[in-house]
Task: structure prediction
Amino acid sequence: MMRKVTHVPGRILMLVAAWALLPATAWAIDPEPPFEDPQLEAQYQALINEVRCLVCQNQTIADSNAPLAADLRREIREMMGEGASRSEVVEFLVARYGEFVLYRPRFQPSTWALWGGPAFFVILGMVVFARILRVRMAQPLEGEESP
Amino acid sequence: MWRFLVPVSIFAVLAAFFYRGLSLDPGYVPSPLLGKPAPEFELPRLKDPAAMLGNRDLDGQVALLNVWATWCVGCRQEHGFLVDLAESGAIPIYGLNWKDDRQTALNWLTDLGDPYVASAFDELGEVAIDWGVYGAPETFLLARDGTVLHKHIAPLDEAIWARDFLPKIAEQCGSLPCPLEAGE
Result:
């Protein structure tokens, strides 16, 4: 017997379509609507994803439900809405909470070792590697022939 | 010789870093406000919303600004000490009531005693952000000219008071209670 394909009721289809069309920001934790300017909204999202929530230190303020994180998001949103630049907001936060609020520390004397460290160790590794190679290459090749 | 020296020195450096790093308290975030003028604020008073409390009320005295809230367990813990401290007359204590409900906060002061000369009511937490507050209770020690001398995060008690606050207060005043600035 042939199975008859039942029609999905149009109303449910509409619901699914409406759900799929919701912008991702509809799931953001704040009640405020996103900025109308998508570029500004992107800058705002990027920034709050780089600011540490000091109440729960392994979360950004974009992730955190802590009341302080909500207050900081509101403050940053207000500042950016009034035309503050990224560096102005960062300066505002650092003046109050210190460099620790930034997940991406700024390049300055106290962070030279932090930013320069990886490059230093890569170069160190290459120097050590080169020296080992030079020593090995100076040795006669007879070792390779033995089993 | 090198075969011995290189691993041992690498180990020594790592050990030194770990010893230092693992004994640090990641919960301790030094305030960038230390040694700087206290942030400007002006807020309605908790007990009298029509009156304001701001920097000029604190000027001219060595004072404490204590950030508290009724939802904050540590604040409940330190409250008895603050009441005793206020009764001793050692130093004026001002409160910053942070993101709280006014009536609940008033009840708390009625039930547990009120150590504060006055409390500012920061419902939205905006002044708290300016002061870099992130976890109540926090206590700021302020000089006569409004400089932030010290910040303590966590409940206060007798031992912390004697260790961290008294020496700094003595530097400012020489004696307790701190004499007010001349002309005040």
Notes: The longest strand of chain B covers residues 63-68. Chain B has one domain: 37-173. Chain B is about 40% helix and 20% strand. Residues 139 and 152 of chain B are 5 Å apart (CA to CA).
